[in-house]
Amino acid sequence: MSTPAQLSVSLWRGGNDGRYESYSVPRRESQTVLDVVTYVQRHIDQTLSYRFACRVGMCGSCAMTVNGRPRWTCRTHVAKVAASGSLTIGPLENLPLIKDLATDMAPFFEKWQQAKGVFAPSQTRAEPMARIRPDSAPRVAANAAIECINCGVCYAACDTVRWNSGYLGPAALNRAWTLVNDERDAGNPSRLAAIAASGGCHSCHSHQSCQEHCPLALNPTASIAGLKRRTAVAYLKGEIKA
Amino acid sequence: MNVRLYVWQRATAALMVPFVLVHIAVIFYATRQQMTAADILSRTHGSAAWAAFYTVFVAAVSIHAAIGVRNILSEWSPLGHRAAGWCAVFLGIVLALLGFHAVIALVLT
After folding, report:
1. Which chain B residues in 30-89 lie under 8 Å from chain A, judged by CB atoms?
2. How many structural domains is chain B composed of?
3. Which of A132, A155, B30, B36 is most buried, taking the most CB atoms under 10 A from its CB?
């Protein structure tokens, strides 16, 4: 089947009361969804708002809803998602809309903070560097979750976030899991208490949408399951209160 | 849901597994033996074992269902967490009262 010369693209325009508007964009070889959005902004309507930075799948800033599915647009090829020659691109779900394709990521990162997703050092820089065996069980568990780029795709895909605005979400909990397994970290007492509270890891229904949609093929559901076990044991030992 | 509710719901779920199996086995046995209500009551009347079995079962069901319904109400209804919690407590009490009433009828009448 030959590649069509033009793509039919619908982009969300405006705020919550906005609408999809149609554009025609030249089809090119190795074209990404971000290329399509950028073409519209540079050649058709310069008022189009969207967010991107690195364009190579490292910064996590360009995620959007593409044909109904949250994706990182810079690494999503048009050929993969628009075989019919049409694209519908909207802002990420579960986040406040600023304008057009740009969402406010503040709630996403605030929950990262609520989940105590910040490293709490147990040593000073004057002390010798900690020696962590690469094959130790905690390091292996942390490794499996560490490559998150905070694109927000899992958060937008999560049913529990949609139903429960207080839920911390897969990315924040996945980050907490990496720190729970960081042998250098000293923040676990307060971290486990934070993620064992209402809206924490026990709110997860294990639908696995986060795993299904994660562009880096991480498995936040597995991380959350680990947190459920760890916090339940800590609770039964009396180390955390509910 | 927090860790306390999570532990209670999982613990009652684990507890109910053998209870549900025994309960279903008893239902199959009673129907295959074509037992009447009077036949069943004649066997359960005065039985401390059946009283203990169904008392624990009713308690586990009441706790487990109430926590689950609380979760459903807080996620899928306009009720807030606090209102959903009170609804769940009410449901749990109703289930427990109905269940214990049935247990009394089973072993004392």
Report:
1. 74-76, 81
2. 1
3. A155
Q: Is B5 on the interface with A (CB under 8 A)?
A: yes
Is the ipTM, as predicted for this complex, more than 0.85? no
Instruction: Looking at the structure, tell me whether residues A79 and A139 fall in a common domain.
Output: no
Q: Is B102 on the interface with A (CB under 8 A)?
A: no
Of A164, A166, A196, the CB nearest to B3: A196
Residue at A241 is within a domain: no
Q: What is the pTM of this model?
A: 0.90
The CATH number that applies at residue A81 is: 3.10.20.30
**Domain check: are A64 and A82 in the same one?**
yes
- Per CB-CB distance under 8 Å, the chain B contacts of A196 are 2-3
Q: What is the pLDDT along chain A (242 residues), one digit of tens a residue?
A: 556 689 999 999 999 999 999 999 999 999 999 999 999 999 999 999 999 999 999 999 999 999 999 999 999 999 999 888 899 999 999 999 999 999 999 999 999 999 999 999 999 999 998 899 999 999 999 999 999 999 999 999 999 999 999 999 999 999 999 999 999 999 999 999 999 999 999 999 999 999 999 999 999 999 999 999 999 999 999 998 87
> What string of H, E and C letters represents the secondary structure of chain A?
CCCCCEEEEEEEECCCCCEEEEEEEECCCCCEHHHHHHHHHHHHCCCCCCCCCCCCCCCCCCEEEECCEEEEHHHCEHHHHCCCCEEEEECCCCCCEEECCEECCHHHHHHHHHCCCCCCECCCCCCCCCCCCCCCHHHHHHHHHCCCCCCCHHHHHCHHHHHCCCCCCHHHHHHHHHHHCCCCECCHHHHHHHHHCCCCHHHCCCCCHHHHHCCCCCCHHHHHHHHHHHHHHHHHCCCCCC
